[in-house]
Prior knowledge:
Number of helices: 6
CATH class of the largest domain: Alpha Beta
CATH architecture of the largest domain: Roll
Largest sheet: 5 strands, mixed
Shape: globular
Helix content: 25-40%
Mean pLDDT: 95
CATH superfamily of the largest domain: Beta-grasp domain
Structural class: alpha+beta
Amino acid sequence: MTLHFILNGEAVSAEAPDGALLLDVVRGLGRTGSKEGCSVGVCGLCTMLVGELPVSSCLYLAAMADGAEVWTVEGLTERDPALLEAFVAEEGMQCGICTPGQVVACYAMGLDEPDADEQEIRRYMSGNLCRCTGYVSVTASVKAYLASR
């Protein structure tokens, strides 16, 4: 099937077999920032926005994005450089594996809960797992981003 959607602000078309996952289609289009980690939707590495909703793109059928607006970490950091600036300033990334999902979730939180306190940040970001930071620096990065808006 041929899918048509807006990817990071640009109209795209992609051929996808029935049952193709959004993660695979988007990576096939060269946007490789989102990664596959767990393949069951719990780690957050593959988080993308469809509309303004964060989704686990490793579970999200690509056909469901036909006609939608899809944003990846690459597009969001170009659209809003304050995202990466906050993560760099607060050292919210260590090895970088989880960073794309964390950044996308942070942007979504800015849309959904822009006045969040630390407890709300931790709850909202709980779907994005990290083995390196202990979440202190990730939480500080999200706080800094929300304060910059």
